[in-house]
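Appendix B: a complete holo record

For completeness, this appendix reproduces one full record from the ligand-bound portion of the collection. The bound molecule is LGQLAAA5. The inputs are the chain sequence and the ligand SMILES; the output is the full three-dimensional arrangement of the complex, encoded as structure tokens. No fields have been trimmed.
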Amino acid sequence: MTLVKICGLNDAAGLDAARAGGADMVGFVFFPPSPRAVTPARAAALAAAMPAEGAPLRVGLFVDAGDKELAATLEAVPLDILQLHGEETPERCAAVRARFGRPVMKALGIATEADLALLDAYAPVVDRFLLDAKPPPGATLPGGNAAVFDWSLLTRRAIPRPWLLAGGLTPGNVAEAIRATGAPGVDVSSGVERARGVKDPARIAAFLAAAKGA
Ligand SMILES: O=C(O)c1ccccc1N[C@@H]1O[C@H](COP(=O)(O)O)[C@@H](O)[C@H]1O
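The structure of the chain with LGQLAAA5 bound, as generated:
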């Protein structure tokens, strides 16, 4: 069954809906410019309501974070996976994985076939990929922009690690996205919100039902 990550959770109602609907991963955004950002203290309070082990796994989303920030966040919040959503190089991914002892999920922006060439450089040093759209012109965030990319690019080569499809997914298009790409997992933020940065429990439930039923 398709793995589902609900990202950008910042309140108990959203987290409850994600858990009730069977989310495999929940994401906390540690990137202050994002409207979904949480402080480590806020994420710790939300995570405290979750089971200590098992699903959903807690994913921390970081954008070009330094070791000090990663260490301080991990001190406060029991994160299972580190999602690196900035310009982190393969060397940086390897260093983060070794120093912090957590699986690393590297986000890559995909717009053309050439972007997929990066997969081979990262594959030896990451545990999972998150394949997202590149930020559209004028966007201020490196992700979370409700932008879709050309899914057919993903059918032309094998992805050398487990991976999640992201970018502009919604309850209405996620089943088609899974069918078109064969994605083993999907990730959503904007598509389950009622306003930018505000999660909608009903949309979270609908997304999970559509993705798990695909
Ligand atoms: O969600 C954010 O605010 C965010 C900020 C900075 C980097 C990544 C971010 N979100 C990630 O982007 C994907 C796609 O988002 P969307 O569904 O298109 O809105 C999301 O799943 C997050 O992993």
